[in-house]
Write a structure and sequence with these properties.
Blueprint (H helix, E strand, L loop, with lengths): L55 H14 L19 E9 L5 H18 L34 E6 L1 H4 L37 E7 L2 H14 L4 E12 L28 H7 L15 E10 L1 H4 L4 H8 L30 H5 L10 E2 L2 E7 L5 E11 L2 H10 L9 E11 L16
Amino acid sequence: MNESGTDAAPDASPEGGRGAAASAPTGLSRRGLLGLAIGGGVAGLAVGAGAGLAGGVALGRARATEDARTAYDFFGGHQAGITTPVQEHLHFASFDMMPRTDRDDLISLLQDWTYASARMTQGLDVSATGAVGGSAEEPPDDTGEAQGLSAAGLTITFGFGPGLFENEDGDRYGISAQRPADLERLPAFLGDDLDPEASHGDLCIQACADDPQVAVHAIRNLSRIAFGRARLRWSQLGFGKTSRTTAAQATPRNLFGFKDGTANILADDTAALDEHVWVGASDEPSWMTGGSYLVARKIAMLIETWDRVRLSEQDTIIGRDKGEGAPLSGGTELTRPDFAGSAIDENSHVRLAHPEQNDGIRILRRGYNYVDGNNALGRLDAGLFFLSYQRDPAQFITLQKRLSTDRLNEYIRHVGSGIWAIPPGASAGSYIGADLFA
């Protein structure tokens, strides 16, 4: 629920290449990824539905089928899952390193995660023996629930939290000197009601896919691989994207029923990405060049309270009309808001979050709706799992402070939070975050 971006631009290619599932290599350990490019040279697949299909239902089904066959390379200059076209489902997980682990444990974990991720993003089991190819007298390498399913556009994105670099046990992994200066837990914001058991973490994994079972399979198996080295701290399932990263994607709606992410940075806007999302060569530390910073915020929505607000007031709170998504100053969804007059309330969400009101600050959003059943009062435990990528954590902090007077705050609560450094993409034959240990 944020206006920090620019409006539509043509579609573009994502970070990773797109290809069909590769054949499974045999006789190779997870660390055998060194020297192996899982997705290299794989033939591309068309994503768009074929022309001439009759009727909206047939077109939608064709697109769903095509999306399910989409595969993105894990390797590349930037990690996939940032500007990649936003998929329909999310499984996000935060991990803490286990006590008494050392530098070698951390490196081996990242190597093993890279090997498994490079395979799963191509629709393969986590290893060559996988779910059924190993000894019947030993637990299988892969849990098997994704057998028969395609890659479904799976992307897996990794991040490093502040505690990985130094915590109460000191500099366990010899990387404290490489910690980005601004990688610190976010400050307290007005209205925060954070659950410490659902916040923070040494490592994070964002798994997005167009099939929820594929996303869950990825986190489940990466958690198994981490056994003895890292433990799951908390996780979150998400559905129904609440932002877009390409012009080809329609603007989705959040659980308040409003279009969300109209002004997001899009994948082909390379100038905006370089300025606002990717860490530059002139930034420090150098191992983060081509990476980004991820902020995750679990935002509970007071659904039942909102549903009793009259429509005109809902429009005023957001600053856009609920149907078209147009700014209240007039026009269509993609019309630039006019803040000169009084049509858009001074404390509306649109006005406070818009780049024109924040010295041009922009972020790339990639959030999802969530519903976690109901709470003790019998109300929906639901809301927005907000994800944003930015070149500098200060971008998010500035915007969040600006939203302190947002009229929307009466209907939302921030209950979870975390920040992670997102390293650049791994090179084929290497592993995620390798430059940190160089």
